[in-house]
Design goal:
The chain has about 325 residues and is α/β, with parallel strands linked by helices. It has nine helices and ten strands.
């Protein structure tokens, strides 16, 4: 992801210039899909969206995949005993539906209290069809969503979301839709934007410029390169020529300059944009999380891919570790 490259800036400026942020009006308003399961955790996800002013630019869709009664029960022989069991299952299903509807109403009230308009909020109780992940993916593909918001862990159908098969499918197949992972910290107006000059990280810049610009956020730009010495305890140190790091530093400073210019044009205050290059880090994800902690950031923004296209986003270590090591932070994966 954040891989060192002395040639990282060759096409960056032209790419940055081609990606022009634009402000959306109400007739061009995009949607955010918020995955909920009726739990207290998912209510905190709704609260995160409500308190982060950036989401007021979107229409919100509260989305729940409802599993209902497993199909195998409908194949039971219609005996008196089984009819009683099915009757109890139907009562349970109805109770679960009512609980989700109650959750939807409570979530709506949270959003309305924070200034969202009633017509910008939609609730969808989606009967499970092909599977939780497939149904979510299909909804995203057909719904023209700007992003999907979820929490690291859920209950019921999406329990263990980040570490389970549902999350892996979402991350691997929702390639063109940003994913926003709500964190534990109360949101503030400070975000840390990880940059490496790759097309993916430039998309992250574009997303931040388009949707966050003009909302009084502070932004930290960070680039991290790993050290070549002590990669493992039993491996010898390998020293790169100092010229390499100088070239890398100069390349990233040019990328930072172009990024700063784009953000200022999008409405960011130049005095609230900071820059940092970290070299020789043992863990790139660890360095990013430490900077977020030290700088008081509550949101980390990163592209899904780095300069190497050989690995899909979640198969790589950096994005995965940012989510796990930085569990208290909200992470936007663009």
């Amino acid at each position: 992801m954040f891989v060192a490259s002395c040639n990282a800036d060759e096409n960056t400026k032209s790419t940055l210039n081609r990606i022009q942020p634009r402000r959306r009006n109400m007739t061009d308003q995009k949607k955010i899909l918020i995955l909920v399961d009726g739990s207290e955790r998912s209510m905190r996800t709704v609260q995160y969206v409500a308190q982060a002013g950036v989401f007021k630019a979107f229409k919100l869709v509260l989305f729940h995949v409802f599993s209902g009664i497993p199909g195998c029960y409908w194949d039971m022989e219609r005996t008196d005993i089984n009819r009683e069991a099915i009757s109890q299952l139907l009562a349970w299903e109805n109770t679960q539906k009512n609980a989700i509807e109650t959750f939807f109403q409570a979530a709506r009230e949270v959003l309305l209290k924070e200034g969202f308009s009633d017509d910008a909020i939609k609730s969808v109780l989606h009967p499970r069809q092909e599977g939780v992940a497939r149904d979510i993916i299909k909804e995203v593909e057909q719904g023209d969503y700007a992003a999907v918001v979820l929490r690291r862990r859920g209950v019921g159908a999406i329990e263990g979301l980040i570490v389970g098969s549902v999350a892996n499918k979402l991350f691997s197949q929702l390639k063109s839709c940003p994913i926003i992972v709500a964190g534990q910290l109360p949101t503030n107006q400070k975000l840390l934007l990880a940059i490496d000059g790759s097309p993916s990280s430039l998309k992250a810049v574009d997303f931040v410029a388009e949707y966050v610009g003009g909302r009084h956020y502070s932004v930290g730009l960070i680039h991290v390169t790993r050290g070549f010495g002590g990669l493992a305890p039993d491996e010898p140190d390998f020293m790169m020529p100092s010229e390499y790091f100088e070239l890398e530093h100069n390349a990233m400073m040019r990328i930072f300059s172009d990024t700063r210019e784009k953000l200022v044009k999008a409405g960011f205050d130049a005095s609230k944009i900071e820059e940092k290059i970290v070299t020789g880090a043992y863990s790139r994800a660890g360095a990013i999380v430490r900077e977020a902690e030290a700088g008081g950031y509550t949101t980390i923004v990163a592209g899904r891919r780095g300069l190497s296209r050989l690995q899909e986003f979640f198969m790589g270590s950096v994005s995965s570790k940012i989510i796990h090591v930085g569990a208290k932070f909200s992470v936007w994966l663009i």
